[in-house]
Amino acid sequence: MLTKEQVIGAINKLPQEFSIEEVIDELILLEKIETGLAQSKANNVIPDEELDKELPEWLR
Hints:
Elements: H1 4-13, H2 20-41, H3 48-58
C-alpha cells in the first residue's frame, strides 16, 4: 500500500505540466515496486536457480 508521502514524492518528480496518464503510470510503477519489496521481505520470491529454469518458458 502506498503512503501519501510516496504519492506526493512521485508527483513532485513530474515536470510542471503533465498528463493524467503520466501520473497514473508513475503511481502504478511505485505500487509495483512497493509490492515487490513487500514480497521480498516476506520471502515470497523465486530462487535464482528456479528462475533460470522457468525464464525460457516465460519468454516463449
